[in-house]
Amino acid sequence: MPAFTELDQLGRSHSPREGARITNFVLHTQEGNGTAESLAAYLNNPANGVSYHYTLRDAVVVRVVPEELASWSVLSANRFTVNLCFAGSRTAWSRADWLAIDADLRIAAHLAVRSAHRHGYSTEVIAPPYRVADGITDHQYVTRALGIGTHTDVGPNFPWDVFATHVASFTHTGPSAIDARAASTPWLGARRTDGELATPDGLGRFAEFEHGYVYWHPSTAAHAIPTAIMTKFAELGWETGPLGYPIAEHTELPDPRGTGPGLAQAFQGGTVYRRAEHPAHWVHGAIGTRWAASGFENGQLGWPASDEITHDDGVYQEFEFGRIYWVPDQIVALRNSGDPDTPLARPA
């Protein structure tokens, strides 16, 4: 992933897509000397009648229009395109001028591939001579291939060969990390997903299998989630919820009081525990740290018996043999032992 700063400068210069399927990522020139931020400020004035989803210059990306909405960039093609403008660029640029901003070309390629994966359209680079197809292209494609408008940017000297190489570097061309994880995880069973599906953030991927799922994100790698854990993951909003992406494979935990091993799996936002023949529960934060200090499921509190529950100015969580209360600056673990319960001392 290239290094860049992504800013939100969202305005009102957009329209609904009206159910249209996104098919193309389109590149544009500014024909001026603006920065990514100054161009975005201009686009945010609806009276100017123009906008793009992204502006880009000097490794600064400004998001002006969410991809779920149509920008005002390519007339009647707005409904099915995502549009990016290179701030400070011109159609008359030479190949050398474009290669001088190669870092921005690479960022644009990354954004195009991210968008294509997010919305399910092709990452094929459609360069002159054009043909009508899903993929990544420029404003002149809209003019020449689709017959809409008269614009000719990004111009005749744009280095399509270099740009296509950047696009290819962000596109899976061999076995993916999800495929590799599935191959090393036979308990997943038969694959149910045709290929991989994009997550809403446009960065992650997942695939469904007979006995679970595999999720991948560039910062966490690929990890399999068994169905027994997946139920809680889904309940909490999948990867867009507080759990985030899985960061490790699940672990089997012996339970001498149960009928079989329990399961635990770590996520970005905590750990899901599931005792055999019981529902799964999420443990995290200060309560998770206190439970760990008590010995996890083999300690005096036993297995989690609920998620966190809001109480007065804080929260508490039920466990097999007690509960843990948290309020700001204080946490108390109690073991069920009659009336009153017994506070648990912290281990030395």
UniProtKB/TrEMBL annotation:
One BP annotation, GO: peptidoglycan catabolic process
MF-aspect GO terms: N-acetylmuramoyl-L-alanine amidase activity
Domain N-acetylmuramoyl-L-alanine amidase stretches: 10-155
Pfam family membership, one: LGFP
InterPro entries linked to this entry: Amidase/PGRP_sf, Amidase_domain, LGFP
SUPFAM superfamilies named among the record's database cross-references: N-acetylmuramoyl-L-alanine amidase-like (SSF55846)
The protein, known as: N-acetylmuramoyl-L-alanine amidase domain-containing protein
